[in-house]
Amino acid sequence: MNRVILSGYVGKDPEIRFIDKRPIAEFSLATTEPQRTTPSGVTIPERTDWHRIVMFDAHADFAEKYIRKGSRLLIEGKLRTRVWEDRATQKHTVTEVYVTTFELLPRN
Fold it and tell me: Are 10 and 26 in contact (CB under 8 A)?
């Protein structure tokens, strides 16, 4: 099963592009684990991870209209890793979350 659920804040306004008239929205999402102390007294600092989010079709249309930097989202989707080569023939690998469902949450 390939399923990921993330709750976090949008890092930048969605970028919209079209492939064969199909809208695609891409943006970053930050998820944060708060600082905590283990039972042995070791303090583990806060940690923020950044994720590449991809939305298609009606989700992309919604993102274009309503999602902005700072929006809080609950996202469910699938992880996809792709490899591409730039003009200098250097290979790049990127892992993205392809959204299947999402909810725009109120800001705290």
Answer: no
Task: Classify residue 40 as exposed, middle or buried by CB count within 10 Å of its CB (0-12, 13-18, 19+).
Answer: exposed
Give the number of other CB atoms < 10 A from CB of residue 78.
Answer: 14
Residue-wise pLDDT tens digits, 63-106: 999 999 999 999 999 999 999 899 999 999 999 999 999 999 99
Question: Is 47 in contact with 32 (CB distance < 8 Å)?
Answer: yes
Concatenated DSSP letters of 33-99: EPPEE-TTS-EE--EEEEEEEEEEHHHHHHHHHH--TT-EEEEEEEEEEEEEE-TT--EEEEEEEEE
Give the closest residue to 51 by CA, choosing from 77, 24, 78, 30. Answer: 30
Q: How many CB atoms lie within 10 A of CB 100?
A: 14
Separation between Cα atoms, residue 73 and residue 37, nearest integer Å: 27
